[in-house]
Design the sequence.
C-alpha cells in the first residue's frame, strides 16, 4: 500500500498518519476517493449544508442555536464599542434611566401633585421592562443595515444581529436592575417575592416579543429604510399605551373596566406583572394633610390572572418569532444586493 | 456522487438593476407600490459544478463574469434565485479579509469576534490563538485597537484568522493578491498545506498562473455561464483566449488571426514609392506565420513549432542577402535576435520574387503575446528593408509549470539518510 503513495506528498504528514492508510494527504481526488473514510469525511458526512432560495424555519432555529457563542461576542462587542473612550463607561447605562426617573418624579409628584407612595419604584418597575423592550426593538431594527459590511461578506445566520441587539438591551436591563435594587433598599420597599416566578415569565415573554419584532423589522428595514424612523414614533405612542407612568387600575380599570382592547397591547400584562412583583401593592394609601388618599394601582387579581396573561403573551411572542424568522428568510436572499 | 464537498446544482442568480430604487414609503406610495422599471441581470445562469473533496478548484473569469457571485452563493452570503448548493463540511469563506473587524476593539478581541463569525467556538479560538498571532506576525500590536493597524496588518490578521478556522472547505476570493510579497508567499504556502491535508479549496482569481500552479481543476465563467471546466492548463488557455477575443472585439475562434497576411498597408510605407532607390534592391512582399499545432485557434502552445514565411522581391539580382528576425515580448523587450548569417544560411536573391522561412522549433516560451520584426540587409550591414511589426503570435501553456520559459528540468533522488535509524543504532 505504501508504494502507492505519491512521492510528492509531505513526509511529515505521512509519518504522522503512516498507520492509518485511509488518511490520504495527497491532493489527487482519486486518491482521496480510494482512501475511503477519513476522520474529516466522517465529520463532513454528518454536516451537509444546503444553500437554497429558501431556508426552512427549523433550520434557521438550528443555525441560531449553533451560533450562540457568536451572539455573546456580538453583545459584548456592542457594549464595548458603545462605551469606548468614555470615562464612566457602563455607569452611563445606569445614569440615563436614573435621570429619566428623576424627570418623571419631578413632573408627576412635585409639579402635578401625585401623592402615590414610592412612586419612583412604581415608575422604575414599568420602565425597567419597557427600556429593555424599546432598546432591543430600536437598535434591532437598524442592525442589518448598520452591519452591511459583515452581512455582505460573511456567511452566518443574520438574525443573530437582531438577537444581539436585544441581548445587549438585556445587559443594560441587568445594570438598571442593580440601580433599582439600590433605590428599593434606600426607600425601604419590599417586593412581593411570591410573584417573582411570574416576573421571570413576563421577562422571558418580553424578550421573546422584542426578538420577534427586532428580527422582523431588521429585515424590512433593508428594503424600506423608513422603518427605522417610523418605529421611533410608534414606540413613543406604544410607551404611553402602557401603564408605566400612570397606574392602570385608577386610569383604565376603574373607569372602563378591564377593556379587552387595552389588552391587545401585549406589553400591558408584562408591565403589570413587573409592577405587581416589584411595587407589590395593588392598592396604595397616601397620607396627606387632608386625610388618606387611596390609589388603586393594579388590578386586584390573583397570580393566575397575571401568569395566564403573561403566558398568552409568551405564546404570541413565540408564534410571532417564528413568523419573523420565515419573513426574514424570504427577505434575506437579496440583502447583499440591497445594502 | 457521494464524495462531493461542494455541489452546485443549476444555480442561477438574478439581480434587479433598478435605475434608482424606491426605498422609502413615500416613493412606493407615489408609484402605487410598483417597482421602478427594472432590468433583469442574470449574474449566474444555470451553473452546475461539483467539487470533490480534496480538490482545489480555481475559478477564472473577467470582471463581472459572475465568479464572485458564485462564491457568495456557495458561502451562503447570497441565496440563489433558483437552484441550490450543497456543501459538506465546515466552510470558511475569505470573501473579504477582515470583514467584520471592529476598528475600536483590539486585535485580540477581534480574533475572537471574527473567529466566531466564521463559526469557531471559543475553545477553538483559544487553541488557535497563538497560531493566529504567529501567522499574522502582529505579536506587539495584538492588544492595540485595530484602527491603528495599517491596511496590510489588518489583512494579515484577517487571513490568519480565516486559515486557522480549521475548515474542510476554504473559499478564497482574490484575497491572495493582498499583502506584501513575502506574506503572499506565506499565504500560498498555507493554501498548499491545506491541499496536502486533503481539504477542499475553491479560489477565484484573475491570475491564471495561480490556477495553473496550485489547482487541480479550473473553471472559466463568462457572462454568468460556465464555459469551461477541466484541467487547469486547459482552463487558463480558454480563459486567456476568451480575454483576448473579447479584448479584441472578435469572436472566440477567428481563423483570420491564425495566419496574418501582411497587407501592403502593414508592410509600411518605407517599402513603397522607393522603387527607383537602388540602395534598397530587396524588399518584403508579405509575411505569414503558421503554427504546427491546431490552426483553428489563434494561438500556439508551448512546444509547438512556429514558421514565419517571408515572401520577398528583388528588383535586381543581389548577392549575400541577410534576413534578420527579432522576437519581442508584450513590453517590447527583445526576447531573441538572430539572422541568416548567424544561422549560417548564405542567400543570394536573383531578380524576381522569392520565399524564405524562419522556423522556430519547440517553442520554449510559456505564456504571453509576442511580436516579431524582420529585416533585410546586405552582409556588410546596409539595410534594404525593415518591417517593424511584421506579425504577432500568442503562446498558451497547456502544462502546469509557470514562469516565462520552459526549461527541461530533471529531478532525481540521489540518497536519503534516515535520522530515525541512526538514532536507534546509537
Sequence:
Amino acid at each position: 500500500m505504501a508504494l502507492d503513495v505519491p512521492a510528492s506528498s509531505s513526509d511529515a504528514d505521512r509519518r504522522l498518519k503512516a498507520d492509518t492508510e485511509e488518511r490520504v494527504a495527497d491532493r489527487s481526488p482519486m486518491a482521496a476517493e480510494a482512501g475511503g473514510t477519513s476522520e474529516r469525511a466522517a465529520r463532513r458526512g454528518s454536516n451537509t449544508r444546503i444553500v437554497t432560495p429558501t431556508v426552512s424555519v427549523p433550520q434557521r432555529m438550528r443555525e441560531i442555536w449553533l451560533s450562540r457563542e457568536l451572539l455573546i461576542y456580538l453583545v459584548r462587542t456592542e457594549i464595548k464599542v458603545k462605551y469606548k473612550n468614555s470615562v464612566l463607561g457602563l455607569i452611563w447605562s445606569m445614569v440615563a434611566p436614573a435621570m429619566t426617573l428623576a424627570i418623571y418624579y419631578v413632573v408627576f409628584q412635585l409639579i402635578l401633585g401625585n401623592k402615590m407612595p414610592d412612586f419612583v419604584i412604581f415608575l422604575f418597575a414599568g420602565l425597567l421592562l419597557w427600556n429593555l423592550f424599546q432598546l432591543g426593538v430600536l437598535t434591532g431594527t437598524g442592525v442589518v443595515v448598520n452591519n452591511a459590511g459583515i452581512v455582505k461578506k460573511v456567511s452566518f445566520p443574520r438574525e443573530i444581529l437582531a438577537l444581539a441587539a436585544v441581548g445587549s438591551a438585556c445587559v443594560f436591563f441587568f445594570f438598571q436592575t442593580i440601580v433599582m435594587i439600590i433605590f428599593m433598599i434606600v426607600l425601604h420597599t419590599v417586593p412581593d417575592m411570591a410573584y417573582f416566578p411570574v416576573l421571570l415569565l413576563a421577562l422571558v415573554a418580553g424578550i421573546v416579543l422584542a426578538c420577534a419584532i427586532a428580527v422582523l423589522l431588521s429585515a424590512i428595514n433593508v428594503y424600506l429604510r423608513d422603518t427605522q424612523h417610523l418605529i421611533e414614533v410608534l414606540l413613543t405612542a406604544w410607551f404611553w399605551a402602557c401603564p408605566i407612568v400612570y397606574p392602570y387600575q385608577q386610569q383604565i380599570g376603574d373607569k372602563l373596566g378591564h377593556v379587552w382592547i387595552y389588552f391587545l397591547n401585549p406589553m400591558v400584562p408584562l408591565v403589570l406583572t413587573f409592577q405587581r412583583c416589584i411595587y407589590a401593592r395593588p392598592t396604595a394609601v397616601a397620607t396627606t394633610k387632608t386625610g388618606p388618599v387611596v390609589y388603586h394601582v393594579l388590578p386586584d387579581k390573583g397570580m393566575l390572572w397575571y401568569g395566564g396573561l403573561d403566558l398568552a403573551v409568551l405564546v404570541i411572542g413565540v408564534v410571532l418569532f417564528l413568523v419573523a424568522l420565515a419573513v426574514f428568510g424570504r427577505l434575506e436572499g437579496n440583502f447583499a444586493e440591497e445594502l | 456522487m457521494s464524495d462531493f464537498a461542494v455541489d452546485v446544482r443549476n444555480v442561477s442568480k438574478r439581480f434587479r438593476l433598478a435605475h434608482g430604487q424606491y426605498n422609502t414609503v413615500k416613493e412606493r406610495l407615489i408609484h402605487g407600490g410598483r417597482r421602478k422599471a427594472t432590468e433583469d441581470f442574470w449574474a449566474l445562469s444555470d451553473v452546475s459544478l461539483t467539487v470533490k473533496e480534496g480538490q482545489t478548484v480555481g475559478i477564472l473569469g473577467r470582471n463581472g463574469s459572475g465568479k464572485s457571485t458564485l462564491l457568495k452563493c456557495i458561502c451562503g452570503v447570497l441565496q440563489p434565485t433558483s437552484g441550490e448548493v450543497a456543501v459538506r463540511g465546515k466552510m470558511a469563506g475569505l470573501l473579504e479579509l477582515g470583514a467584520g473587524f471592529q476598528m475600536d476593539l483590539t486585535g485580540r478581541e477581534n480574533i475572537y469576534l471574527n473567529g466566531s463569525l466564521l463559526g469557531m467556538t471559543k475553545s477553538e479560538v483559544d487553541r488557535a490563538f497563538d497560531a493566529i498571532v504567529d501567522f499574522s506576525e502582529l505579536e506587539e500590536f495584538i492588544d492595540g485597537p485595530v484602527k491603528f493597524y495599517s491596511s496590510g496588518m489588518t489583512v494579515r490578521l484577517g487571513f490568519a484568522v480565516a486559515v486557522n478556522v480549521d475548515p474542510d472547505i476554504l473559499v478564497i476570493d482574490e484575497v491572495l493578491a493582498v499583502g506584501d510579497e513575502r506574506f503572499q508567499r506565506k499565504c500560498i504556502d498555507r493554501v498548499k498545506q491545506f491541499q496536502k491535508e486533503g481539504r477542499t479549496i475553491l479560489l477565484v482569481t484573475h491570475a491564471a498562473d495561480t490556477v495553473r500552479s496550485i489547482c487541480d481543476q479550473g473553471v472559466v465563467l463568462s457572462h454568468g455561464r460556465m464555459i469551461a471546466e477541466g484541467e487547469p492548463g486547459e482552463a487558463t488557455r480558454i480563459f486567456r483566449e476568451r480575454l483576448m477575443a473579447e479584448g479584441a472585439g472578435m469572436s472566440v475562434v477567428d481563423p483570420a488571426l491564425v495566419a496574418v497576411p501582411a497587407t501592403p498597408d502593414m508592410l509600411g510605407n518605407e517599402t513603397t514609392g522607393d522603387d527607383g532607390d537602388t540602395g534598397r534592391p530587396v524588399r518584403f512582399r508579405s509575411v505569414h506565420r503558421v503554427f504546427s499545432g491546431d490552426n483553428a485557434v489563434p494561438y500556439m502552445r508551448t512546444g509547438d513549432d512556429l514558421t514565419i514565411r517571408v515572401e520577398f522581391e528583388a528588383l535586381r539580382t543581389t548577392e549575400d542577402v541577410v534576413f534578420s528576425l527579432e522576437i519581442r515580448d508584450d513590453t517590447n523587450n527583445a526576447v531573441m535576435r538572430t539572422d541568416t548569417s548567424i544561422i549560417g544560411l548564405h542567400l543570394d536573391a536573383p531578380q524576381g520574387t522569392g520565399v524564405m522561412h524562419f522556423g522556430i522549433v519547440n517553442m520554449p516560451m510559456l505564456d504571453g503575446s509576442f511580436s516579431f520584426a524582420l529585416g533585410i540587409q546586405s552582409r556588410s550591414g546596409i539595410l534594404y528593408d525593415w518591417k517593424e511589426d511584421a506579425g504577432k503570435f500568442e503562446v498558451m501553456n497547456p502544462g502546469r509549470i509557470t514562469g516565462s520559459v520552459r526549461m527541461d528540468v530533471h529531478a532525481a533522488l540521489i540518497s536519503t539518510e534516515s535520522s530515525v535509524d541512526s538514532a536507534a543504532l546509537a
